[in-house]
Amino acid sequence: MVVAEVTDYCVVMTTTATDGEAQALARLLIEQQLAACVQRHIINSTYGWEGRVCEAAETLLLIKTERSHYPAVEAFIRANRSYTVPEILCLPVQAGSTPYLQWITESLRKKHD
């Protein structure tokens, strides 16, 4: 199998208000093969919102996928989020383990081919 270029991969970051919401979002991203892996991390965030300084517990999702899937991942997050302005950041992969990147490609191709 030919693996895409390293730059064809990305990690999408988003946050949710609850771990339950994050778990459901992660599961759906995997089931719909928009992501090969989604990691959930409980975090504490401090941010400015509507003129106030806010602090909240959130769950951070790190979504491993191919760059070509980013538009669908972003649309999926927007359609399934509870936040008015969800964090959605796409971070390019600059380097990575070839077997791991191959696994991402294989995971995403099972349904889409």
Task: List the topology elements.
Blueprint: E1 9-16, H1 19-31, E2 37-49, E3 52-66, H2 70-79, E4 89-92, H3 98-112
Antiparallel strand pairs: 1-3, 1-4, 2-3
Question: How do you describe this structure in short?
Answer:
The chain is of the alpha+beta class and 113 residues long. It has helices spanning 19-31, 70-79, 98-112, and strands spanning 9-16, 37-49, 52-66, 89-92.
Number of domains: 1
First-to-last CA distance: 14 Å
What's the story with the biggest beta sheet? 4 strands, antiparallel
Classify the fold: give the CATH topology.
Answer: Alpha-Beta Plaits
Report the CATH architecture. 2-Layer Sandwich
Low-confidence stretches: none
Report on the architecture of this protein.
The structure is a single chain. Helix content is 34%, strand content 35%. The relative contact order is 0.29. By secondary structure, the chain is of the alpha+beta class. Strands 2-3-1-4 form a four-stranded antiparallel β-sheet. A hairpin with a 2-residue loop joins strand 2 and strand 3 (52-66). It has one domain (6-112): Alpha-Beta Plaits, CATH 3.30.70.120. The model has no long low-confidence stretch (mean pLDDT 92). The protein has helices at 19-31, 70-79, 98-112, and strands at 9-16, 37-49, 52-66, 89-92.
